[in-house]
Amino acid sequence: MRRAAVLTHGRAEAIGPALQRVEAAAHDAGVELVFPQDELSKHDIDEAPHDLADADLVLVLGGDGTMLRALYRLLGTGIPAIGVNFGRVGFLTAIAESDLDSQLPRVFAGEHRVIELPTLELELDGQRRFAVNDVVAASATVGRMVELSWTVGGEPLGRQACDGIICATPPGSTAYNLSNGGPVLVWGLDAMAVTFIAPHSLHARSMVVPRGLDVVVTNETPHVAATVLFDGRQLGEIPPGGSAVVRLGEQRTLLATLPEVTFFHRYRNTFTS
C-alpha cells in the first residue's frame, strides 16, 4: 500500500488521540496518510488536501454512521474503506479501538480483503439517488398510518396499512429492517429485503427480492403523504396516488475487512453475545 486516506467521526473529540496512533503506524509501514479538506479543517491539520480517489484505501475512524457516510462518498471511486470502531455497535467496522495498534500494520501490509456489497437505486419524482443501507417510506404525519400498495417485477402484491416500508441491502438488513422483524441477509447475497414498519395485520411478511425486479411503492392514503429517506436522508414525499421505485443499483460499495472478521464473526459478536 502506498497511500491511505483518513475519514473520522463527526465529532473530532470522539476519536481522541487515535490520529496520532494511526500516523505512527503509517510511518512505521512507510504509508503516506492523506486527508480531504473537511478532515483537515476538523482536526486543524496544516496540509494540502487530497481527493479520496487518490488513495489506495480509506481508513475510517468511527462507528456505523461514519462508515455509511464514508461508503457513500466512495461510490464510483473503486476505493475500499476499512473501519476502526469508535461507535456503539460498529457492525460495519473491522477493528476494535483497543486493537488499532496491533491490527493497522496488517492493513497497511495489505492483509485485508475487500467485499463487494450491493446498493439500492431510488427513483422519486424524477430524482435518482443511491443508498448503501436502506430506503424507507414512512408516514409524513406522526401518529398517522399510511396505506401502501406495492408491486415486485410489475406484479401487484396488495395493499398494507402500516407506518411505512423498508427496502434494505444486505448490510442494511441488520439495521432498521432487523428491528422491525425483517430477515438478515448474509453478505454475498445480491438481493434486498422488503419489510413493512408496524403493519396493521397478522399476516404481513417480509420478502427477499433479487436483482432485476423493481419494487414500486404507491401511496394509497387520502390526505397523508409518505416521506422517503435514503440512508436516513430525506429525498422528498410520495403524495397520495404517487409512487417511488426501488431496485438494486449498479453501483457497489467496497468494504475492506481483516480475513478473520467475517460476516458471521460480526453477527455472533453483535447479536448473540
Quick tags:
six-stranded antiparallel sheet; alpha+beta; 2 domains; Tumour Suppressor Smad4; 273 residues; Rossmann fold
Q: Taking all residues together, what is the mean pLDDT?
A: 95
Q: How many E-type strands?
A: 17
Tally of alpha and pi helices: 6
Order of helices and strands: EHEHEHEEHEEEEEEHEEEEEEH
Oligomerization status of the protein chains: single chain
Helix percent band: 10-25%
Please tell me the total number of domains.
2
CATH architectural group of the largest domain: Sandwich
Report the CATH superfamily of the largest domain: Probable inorganic polyphosphate/atp-NAD kinase, domain 2
> How far do the termini sit from each other?
35 Å
| Integer-rounded radius of gyration | 20 Å
How does the helix and strand content classify structurally? alpha+beta
Strand numbers in spatial order across the main sheet = 7-6-17-14-9-10
**Overall 3D shape:** elongated
CATH C-level category of the largest domain: Mainly Beta
Largest sheet: 6 strands, antiparallel
β content, as a range? 35-45%
**Low-confidence runs (pLDDT<50, min 5 residues)?**
none
CATH fold call of the largest domain = Tumour Suppressor Smad4
Please tell me about this protein's structure.
There is one protein chain. With 273 residues, this protein is α+β, with helices and mostly antiparallel strands. The protein has two domains: 3-112 and 258-271, 3-Layer(aba) Sandwich (Rossmann fold); 119-251, Probable inorganic polyphosphate/atp-NAD kinase, domain 2 (Tumour Suppressor Smad4), CATH 2.60.200. Helices cover 19% and strands 39% of the residues. The chain has six helices and 17 strands. The chain has helices at 18-29, 37-43, 64-73, 100-108, 176-179, 263-271; strands at residues 3-8, 32-34, 57-62, 81-85, 95-96, 113-124, 127-131, 134-139, 146-152, 155-162, 164-168, 191-197, 207-210, 215-219, 226-230, 233-238, 243-257. The chain has a six-stranded antiparallel beta sheet with strand order 7-6-17-14-9-10, with no helix packed on it. It has a six-stranded antiparallel beta sheet with strand order 13-12-11-8-15-16, with no helix packed on it. Helix 1 (18-29) runs parallel beside helix 4. The longest helix has 12 residues, at 18-29. The two termini are 35 Å apart.
